[in-house]
Amino acid sequence: MISAVRELEVGCIRSSQPSVRKNVEFSWEGLQSLQQKGFSVEPTKGIIDAGHRCTITVIWTPPMGFKPNEVVEVCAPLTLKGDETEVYSVNLMAFASRTLQEPPQTNLRI
Questions:
Q1: How far apart are alpha carbons 80 and 10 in whole angstroms?
Q2: Which domain of life is it from (predicted)?
Q3: CB-facing half-sphere around the CA of 77: CA atoms within 13 A
Q4: DSSP of 28-95, one letter per residue?
Q5: How many domains does the chain contain in total?
Q6: What is the C-alpha to C-alpha distance for residues 39 and 32, in angstroms, rounded to an integer?
Q7: Residue numbers of the domain that contains 70
Q8: Per-residue confidence of the chain (110 residues) as pLDDT tens digits?
Q9: CATH number assigned to the domain comprising residue 19
């Protein structure tokens, strides 16, 4: 089967306040549960300077034994630490279809 790829952007807003932190750290949690379902994310953690963005690539490759036409879902916490800490629940959903007339197709939604 073919892998599906999507991108997610994480950024840090620039502030005019001098006491405000100048960057934000991000990290994924629960990577093992993602991998068990065939998902991978890169990078898994990082630091973003104020006024910049980082593109996170999410790839889904159907795991061995996957049955076409079944939806795969998993939720992974994405933590952003700046002046405040915020945790986002990122829902990943994937689907692979296959018909006799067409090659396998995969679809990934974030």
A1: 9
A2: Eukaryota
A3: 8
A4: E--HHHHHHTTEEEE-SEEEEETT-EEEEEEEE-PPTTPPTT-EEEEEEEEEEESSSEEEEEEEEEEE
A5: 1
A6: 9
A7: 4-109
A8: 678 999 999 988 776 666 666 889 999 999 999 999 999 999 999 999 988 999 999 999 988 888 888 889 999 999 999 888 999 999 999 988 765 455 556 666 76
A9: 2.60.40.10
